[in-house]
Write a structure and sequence with these properties.
Length: 434
């Protein structure tokens, strides 16, 4: 039987059955004991009443059978031979369970009457009756519990199957099957199950449509933005190549170029994320060091006018079989983020055998900011014009999608360390000179 709600229902019914068994055993045993005591008491009282009502009460009128033995101690005569354990008992009915006896002691002016009843046969009869009643009760409890459990399981099982299908459903996959139709769940489902199944399928359809519209918009918008960005980049390159361009105009053109590169990186990331999960960019074997150096050259203009040194430590030269475009986007976002938030000091890019580490001496982040650093459009200072708040989010999402976990370590005023790990499929010798 599947885990989850049906399993908890099974445990609940098992617990209920055990408690019911204990209640039946205790209840039948208590009722049997009380009934046995009532029968014995009634028998002794009837014998005592008959004895006292007989005319000329004497010891020879006492009952004497295999089950009942009477003794009488007259007040005006010598005491008859009476067992010692009987004489020591108080007035009333005394139950001696260990010896299977019940003794009635009744004192009057004429003397004291002792009636000793052997309860062996009564105990055996009541014990057999108790066992029979317990067995009947247990069978009834087990039958009722089993039937109720089967009915509850039949009701809950379709809901559990729906929950499992919804948990496996990934709306990001275009070919992901929606939750099953109600005919697949049960032959005669309840109205609630039918309503839940219909609502889930409707929700799945709306979510799938929304995801598709989001992918279409991102893809179309990214493609449309590429053309004007290309025009801006080419035009700015031509204008910068003009030696007669004034210095203040060159600074403005450099800013335009930096903004264009950032926008191109964002568009590349959006195009990758807009692809279907099963349609990844084309993979090829590439040198991670060369890719990192290329991205470093792209971000060096961002440090113009800043007392910041950018170093590359290429102690290893790993090679990957993966989409180089994706790796370039991720590393580029990490480098641009470091350049943006580092006003003085240094930025160090370490190429390791199993990853790339970017360390800076920038403003750093607090523990609260670090926890939300991967959230889209999150900025510690919402009014700061620096950064848009989605660089780390894009890098993190791309890393998760392609199996490159991204971790951050940071402290306010001490800089940030971003570590991108990967499992290289093809790895060259480490320690080659740059």
């Amino acid at each position: 039987m599947p885990h989850g709600l049906p399993r908890r229902i099974r445990y609940a019914f098992v617990t209920q059955g055990l408690l019911s068994v204990l209640a039946v055993v205790f209840g039948v045993s208590l009722v049997t004991l009380l009934t046995r005591d009532a029968l014995v008491k009634q028998r002794l009282e009837i014998e005592a009443t008959a004895f006292w009502e007989k005319a000329g009460t004497t010891a020879d009128r006492l009952p004497s059978t295999a089950a009942l033995q009477g003794y009488f101690g007259a007040a005006d005569a010598a005491a008859a031979p009476i067992p010692a354990y009987v004489q020591s008992l108080p007035a009333g009915i005394n139950f001696l369970y260990r010896s299977h006896r019940a003794v009635l002691v009744e004192r009057r002016a004429e003397g004291t009457l002792y009636l000793v009843l052997r309860t062996t046969n009564v105990d055996r009869l009541m014990g057999n009756s108790a066992i029979t009643l317990i067995l009947i009760g247990l069978l009834a409890v087990l039958a009722i519990t089993w039937l109720t459990y089967r009915k509850s399981r039949d009701i809950v099982l379709p809901i559990n199957r729906l929950a499992e299908d919804v948990a496996r459903w990934d709306p990001a996959q275009a070919d992901a099957p929606a939750p099953p139709v109600i005919s697949d769940l049960a032959a005669d489902p309840s109205r609630e199950v039918r309503a839940l199944s219909s609502a889930l399928r409707g929700l799945a359809g709306r979510v799938s449509d929304f995801m598709q519209r989001e992918r279409d918009f991102t893809r179309d918008a990214s493609h449309e933005l590429r053309t004007p960005l290309t025009v801006i980049r080419v035009a700015s390159d031509i204008m910068l190549a003009d030696p007669a361009m004034p210095l203040h105009s060159q600074r403005s053109l450099l800013r335009i170029q930096r903004a264009g590169r950032e926008m191109e990186a964002v568009i590349d990331a959006f195009l990758i994320l807009a692809r279907e999960s099963g349609v990844a960019p084309q993979s090829e074997e590439f040198d991670v060091r060369e890719l990192v150096l290329e991205e470093v050259d792209k971000v060096r203009p961002l440090l113009q006018g800043k007392p910041v040194e950018l170093h590359v430590l290429d102690g290893a030269r790993p090679r990957l079989f993966a989409p180089p475009q994706v790796m370039g986007v991720v590393v580029g976002h990490l480098l641009r983020n470091a350049c943006t938030f580092t006003e003085a000091g240094s930025i160090e890019v370490a190429i390791e055998a199993d990853g790339v580490v970017v360390r800076d001496t920038g403003i750093g982040m607090s523990s609260e900011t670090l926890q939300r650093a991967h959230d889209p459009f999150f900025r510690a200072d919402a009014f700061s014009p620096v950064g848009k708040g989605f660089g780390l989010s894009i890098a993190s999402r791309l890393g998760r999608r392609f199996g490159w976990p991204l971790t951050l370590e940071s402290a306010p005023g001490q800089g940030t360390t971003a570590t991108l790990r990967f499992a290289p499929a093809v790895q060259a010798r480490a320690g080659l000179p740059s």
